[in-house]
Amino acid sequence: MDKMITFESGRARFSTRAVAVIVHRDERRVLVSRATIDDSWALPGGRIEIGETSSEAVRREMREELDVEVEVGRLLWVTEEFFEFAGLAWHGIAFYYLVRLPNDSPIYDREESSGIEEFVENIFVPEHLRAEVNRLEMIFCWHDRERLHELTLYPRFLQDRLRLLPGTTEHIIRRGD
Prior knowledge:
- The chain is mostly beta strands.
- It has one domain (about 5-175): Nucleoside Triphosphate Pyrophosphohydrolase, CATH 3.90.79.10.
- About 10% of the residues lie in helices and about 45% in strands.
- It contains 2 helices and 9 strands, in the order ββββαββββαβ.
- The model is unreliable at about 120-125 (pLDDT under 50).
């Protein structure tokens, strides 16, 4: 955990993330995830470690979360993110990659899969559970790309941008969500 590229300065926090955009082979759905203790959804991924490239981080995170070896494709988005969460001003840089599961992956055939997120920081765990939890059960499920607005999906730009993926890498600056 101490290898993650994250640091705090006063009431501000900086973090780097690598994110997987996994589109179902039917092209209609995308894989989203959430902790069982949370109602909001995100794309699978996690923080980058020191000495690790963003694409290596995506591969590692998919091994840890989904127990699968993936093929990391092209970079879709690089985001600079500024938002408030848990009493901190966050500044994050995230790399979003188009990722393929193996053709024979059973994840394609399941509406829902589960996994474990290890060594979760207290800041991401509800206060009443902090003494007991340093790992979270995760839910992964396929959701229609045209209906993402029905989910509480973060970051919010994904609700629109996942409908039609860009042909070239886009740089996005987000403030406030």
